[in-house]
Amino acid sequence: MASAAHTTRRVTITPLDEKVAVLEDVPRESQYALKFVGAAIANMASSAICNPTDIVKVRQQLRRQTPGAQGNAFWSVGVEMARKEGIMSLMGGLSASMVREVVYSGIRMGTYEYFKDKLHAMSKGALSREGLLLKIGAASIAATIGSALANPADLVKVRMQAYYPDGSPYRNMRHAFASIYQEGATLATSKGASTLAGGLGALYRGVEATTIRGIVLSATQICSYDQIKQSLKKRGMMQEGVPLHLVASAFAGLFCSITSNPVDVVKVRLMNDKKHEYKGTFDCVRQIMVKEGVFGFYKGFGMCWARLGTHTILTFLIFERIRYLFGIEAM
């Protein structure tokens, strides 16, 4: 009789229950490592798919004509690129983008729950797991670290995606890294400064804007996804699964596009500022405001939403699936 009962329980166990059971046998440190790997893979896959929209967005943000001008419409920029530079130009900067995602997104998304756990423990429960304050704090810390470390790869990606009338000066990603480092080292030498500091300074140009963007994007993207999922499940409106992941990620993609686009415009301008027209982040903000107006900060928004919205949906769908395959509970 006992044997029959035991058999019945085994038959009614669902695959998700089995995964949760496996989770209990996985050390917490290993779970964090797997989350980092899953986040990196998910973001790399999404970025590869969305690269054409990303490069069009960068080209739009680097243009300085009146916002809304027909020549700056995303379809015009995309068609012009395909016609003049070839269809493969839409995949420009892909190698640098992959490196960036491993560092930037692997850290900002892969360590989000690690910092949630740590902050919750440090506060001794004062910061509720259901509260936004804990989520925003965790996302901000993870994004700050990821953005700062990934700035060189991010800068190289922007440089490789920019338009050059006489053709790109970079043969590949390694050449781009070396060229940008050498530019900074040469400039530093002419001023009597350290070549190492000059080279690293060139690779870290725009790091303030990069970090601010990373914090803003992560705080809205990751936290809104987490909060929306939690609210929908708590109210019994949806259960854990692909439909819930799709709805939550769609809203998260819209929110983070709205909040991050202005900072993204500043970041792209600074990273591509070879002539040093801007004295820094705040000077760049001032010049855009004076010369292009408030809407200058929303150049490329349509493509930003198309790119970041799609990227967000794909990333969370893939990330949740990878977690399931790794035997890790849903985010």
From TrEMBL:
It is a multi-pass membrane protein. It holds the Pfam family Mito_carr. It is found in: Membrane. Solcar repeats lie at residues 30-118, 130-231, 240-325. It comes from the Eukaryota. PANTHER family: MITOCHONDRIAL DICARBOXYLATE CARRIER-RELATED. Belongs to the mitochondrial carrier (TC 2.A.29) family. This is Mitochondrial carrier. It comes from Trametes coccinea (strain BRFM310).
